[in-house]
Every structure is written in structure tokens, then in C-alpha cells.
Design goal:
The model has no long low-confidence stretch (mean pLDDT 94). With 481 residues, the protein is α/β, with parallel strands linked by helices. It folds into two domains: 352 residues, Queuine tRNA-ribosyltransferase-like (TIM Barrel, Alpha-Beta Barrel); 114 residues, Rossmann fold, CATH 3.40.50. A six-stranded parallel β-sheet has the order 6-5-4-9-8-7. The protein binds zinc ion (ZN).
């Protein structure tokens, strides 16, 4: 019955995992499309054929529906929705908060979710909006905590319960909520009430919220980012350690005539081409799709296909050790995403402890690459190397044969002594023509190496472009071109 999560591969804080709830199992990162029983624009059976392994639906809608309540109670959710994969139910607390009062108790919603055969149940938490005052956030978190304890007491420690992590935009509170979830033994933890941050493109704060929550959670917990459905941010969120996403965006956007791409959203009415490989886009022209009587459904199918393809791409990137490149690429699509990416890089020292990738290739893609953990780790490693008494640093200039020891200078890493020439990451790294930023990081590495080798006489061979820089930074060294 219990929810279990097994981590198979890691890259940065991203993971590929196996999430099991009862007899059902899905691979993560995963997208759970949101299914509203009243508006099944794409029936769940059809989603399954598109590769969907799990869906999420709202228990509150079922409990309030004349049409569906009894059916779900007697036949079970899987039969009613025609979907035999994993079905998670949300208590609907977020909707209740946004659209009106709560008229159901924690015990009632969980009892209902159990009765209709849901695979993962969500207790009635209190979703705290990002800009609530701190005192209110704390008191609401305390109520949520009581309900999480109550859920375990009533339904047992092995019940397939999720534990939402709240705390608004207060880092210490998100962390505390994560710690409480870990303390109560929860293994499935959605990060809650972040939709308003995503709707307002507050990605910088979103990155903080995820990293702070992760700091409190058990490292083995499966983390669900509630309501994150646009594919442009999956790579960033996965790199911060999110494993599951859910989304109604495929359907909501289709209703508004919006066409999702991995880097943003377009308006179908303004499009002249359908730049996508999905069956809908390959069997229609833009004009045909605009005029089709099935336009909304076709657009939803495209939107879902693109979203699922991006989830596959994120999984592939984690498996290959190229998640950094994917994050870098996606986050350049929008200035606010770039802002989120920069925040992610700023917090890299905290994230790097989750990072165990040793095979990752390093492609230099601009100044952000200097902040990757490979660079700072290399700097620490290189400073442990012992140099001989006389060394040439080959920074782009000629290499005379009179030097017994030569170390190539390769920014942003810096010096590559003979011992490290073949080793990952600096040896095989791909770097373009040098720029100021990367040279500055390389110099930092060289300074760290020389600080540990004060007796070594250093000669630097470079080009006219960098001569001044090296003379200025290393007044003790002989610099020539
Ligand atoms: Zn398409």
C-alpha cells in the first residue's frame, strides 16, 4: 500500500526514479495530466496511448458530483475514468481556498479518496499563498501539520498519503515544513501553493522555495511540484530536485487557442506553421487546425504531446549527464526563467551536495557555465597538485622545449597539470574562444594552484590579447607572447 520511491540515476539534484503506489508504478520525472471528470477533453484511455503512466484528479469534484460520486464509490476511480495506471487524487484544498469555503474535514476527504480507490491521497492541507504575512503562514502550517499527523494516526503509517509542504516564500518555513514531513515519515511530498509564483513568472523565488523545501525533506522523498505544467520550466525544476509535475495547462491553453512549445507559448491564430513532430501537427496545416471543428481537442493533444516529450527529454538528460545543458537552453527562452536559472547557479553550493554525476560532459555555453559545480570542484582539486620548481603555463602562446613541466591553461578551469590532462572534467571539456568571464575563473584556479606552490618559478606563455591580463594578475611570473 505504501508509497515507495527508488532513485536510479542522478544529475545535479535531478533524479530518475521509480515511484510505486500499491501495485502501480511509474518512472520519474513524470507528468500527471490533470483530469476533470466533467470535461474529459482527452479521455484518460487515450492519454495512456500517448505514454501517460499516471494522472491526477480532484477528489473534491468527485465528492460534489451527482453524476460521478456514486459511480466512483461503487466502481472505483480507475473504472470510472477508464484508466488502469496510477491515479493520484488531490483533496481540492487549493481550489476550495481560491473559490470559496471548505465544507469537508480532513478525515472525510481521506476516507473518500480511500473509498474510490485512489493510489495516492492528499490530506486537507492549508495552501498558503506566497504573499501572506509570516504569522499567518506559521499558524496555517501548524494546522496542516496537525492534519498530517492525524492522517497517519487514522489511516496507518503505510497508507499512500502525500504530505504537502507549505511555507509561502519564507525559506526557513519551507525548510521546517520539509523537516516535519520527514519527521512524520512521509515519502511523497508535494511542494504546495506555488502556482501564483509560476503564473507571475516569479521563477527566482520558485527556485528558492524548492531548494529550501528540499533542505528539510528526506533526500529519498519523491518531490511533486504542485501545478507546474509548462514544459519550459521542467528542466530547471528537475535540476532543483523535483520528480513529479501535474498539469492542466494542456487543456486550459487549448481552450484559449494557445499552442505550447518547449520554450514558450504561441497563439494558434498568429501561426503560419506548426513546428512540431506530433501526429496533430504533421497531419494538419496551421490553417486547417485553426478552422477545424475539433480545434480545441487537437490543440490539447498537441499540447500534451509536447509536454510529455519534454519530460522524456529531461529524463534522457539526467541519464546522459547533460541536464545542465538542457536547463541552460530552456532558461534562455524567457528573461524571468533566466533569472530563475541565475538564482539556481547562486545557490549551487547548496545544490552541489546532491550532485554525484562524474561522467557529465562540460560544454561552455556562456558566463553561467563558470558557476557550474565542476568548476569550483576542479579549483579545489587542482590546488592539491604539487608542481616542480619551474613550470610553463601554456595560455595560448608558444611552448618552448626548455620547460620540463608544462601545464595548459584552459578557462574556466585554469591550469591543467600533466596529472589532470586526461581527467574529467577539464581535460575533455569543450570551450570556445576565450572571453573575459571564463578567463577570470581560469585565473582564479591558477592562483589557487600557485598559492599552494609558493616556491615554483612560473612562466606564462600567452597571446597579445591576454598578455596584459596575465602580467597584471601574476606580477611575479615571467609572461611572454
Ligand atoms: Zn504538435
Amino acid at each position: 500500500m505504501a508509497v515507495t520511491f527508488e532513485i536510479l540515476h542522478k544529475d545535479i539534484a535531478g533524479r530518475i526514479g521509480k515511484l510505486k503506489a500499491g501495485e502501480r508504478q511509474i518512472k520519474t520525472p513524470a507528468l500527471l495530466p490533470v483530469v476533470n471528470p466533467h470535461l474529459q477533453i482527452i479521455p484518460p484511455a487515450e492519454m495512456k496511448k500517448m505514454g501517460v503512466e499516471g494522472i491526477i484528479t480532484n477528489a473534491y469534484i468527485f465528492s460534489k458530483s451527482k453524476e460521478f460520486r456514486e459511480q466512483a464509490e461503487t466502481r472505483g476511480l480507475h473504472d470510472v475514468l477508464g484508466f488502469d495506471g496510477l491515479i493520484m487524487t488531490d483533496s481540492g484544498s487549493f481550489q476550495m481556498m481560491v473559490y470559496g469555503g471548505v465544507d469537508i474535514t480532513n478525515e472525510e476527504t481521506l476516507g473518500f479518496q480511500k473509498k474510490i480507490g485512489s493510489d495516492i491521497w492528499v490530506p486537507l492541507d492549508i495552501p498558503t499563498l506566497p504573499d501572506e504575512p509570516r504569522e499567518d503562514v506559521i499558524s496555517q502550517m501548524d494546522i496542516t501539520w496537525e492534519r498530517m499527523k492525524q492522517a497517519k494516526e487514522i489511516f496507518g503509517k503505510d497508507a499512500p498519503l502525500a504530505c504537502p509542504v507549505q511555507g509561502a516564500v519564507f525559506g526557513d518555513l519551507r525548510k521546517k515544513a520539509g523537516e516535519r514531513a520527514a519527521e512524520l515519515g512521509y515519502t511523497y511530498c508535494p511542494i504546495g501553493a506555488v502556482v501564483p509564483l509560476m503564473e507571475a513568472y516569479r521563477y527566482r523565488e520558485l527556485v528558492d522555495v524548492i531548494i529550501d523545501a528540499k533542505k528539510g525533506l528526506s533526500p529519498g522523498a519523491c518531490v511533486h511540484l504542485f501545478g507546474a505544467g509548462h514544459p519550459s520550466m521542467f528542466a530547471l525544476a528537475a535540476a532543483c530536485g523535483c520528480d513529479v509535475f501535474d498539469s492542466a495547462a494542456y487543456a486550459l491553453y487549448a481552450k484559449d487557442g494557445r499552442y505550447i512549445t518547449p520554450s514558450g507559448t504561441l497563439h494558434l491564430d498568429e501561426m503560419t506553421e506548426l513546428p512540431c513532430a506530433c501526429p496533430v501537427c504533421r497531419s494538419h496545416t496551421a490553417e486547417e487546425l485553426k478552422k477545424s471543428p475539433d480545434r480545441q481537442k487537437l490543440l490539447a493533444q498537441h499540447n500534451l504531446a509536447v509536454t510529455l516529450a519534454e519530460i522524456s527529454r529531461v529524463r534522457a538528460a539526467i541519464a546522459e549527464g547533460t541536464l545542465f545543458e538542457l536547463v541552460d537552453e530552456r532558461c534562455r527562452a524567457h528573461p524571468k526563467l533566466l533569472d530563475g536559472y541565475r538564482r539556481f547557479l547562486e545557490r549551487m553550493p547548496e545544490i552541489a551536495k546532491f550532485d554525484c554525476s562524474s561522467k557529465r560532459r562540460f560544454f561552455y555555453r556562456g558566463s553561467e557555465s563558470c558557476l557550474r559545480p565542476e568548476v569550483s570542484r576542479y579549483h579545489e582539486m587542482v590546488s592539491r597538485i604539487e608542481l616542480s620548481s619551474d613550470v610553463l603555463i601554456a595560455a595560448g602562446g608558444p611552448v618552448p622545449s626548455r620547460f620540463a613541466e608544462v601545464a595548459e591553461f584552459k578557462p574556466p578551469f585554469g591550469p591543467i597539470p600533466y596529472e589532470l590532462a586526461e581527467t574529467w572534467p577539464a581535460g575533455p571539456a569543450e570551450v570556445p574562444t576565450w572571453d573575459e568571464e571564463m578567463v577570470a575563473y581560469g585565473i582564479k584556479g591558477l592562483k589557487m594552484l600557485l598559492a599552494e606552490n609558493p616556491k615554483t618559478h612560473v612562466t606564462i606563455s600567452t597571446t597579445a590579447r591576454w598578455e596584459e591580463t596575465f602580467r597584471r594578475e601574476f606580477p611575479e611570473a615571467d609572461v611572454f607572447i
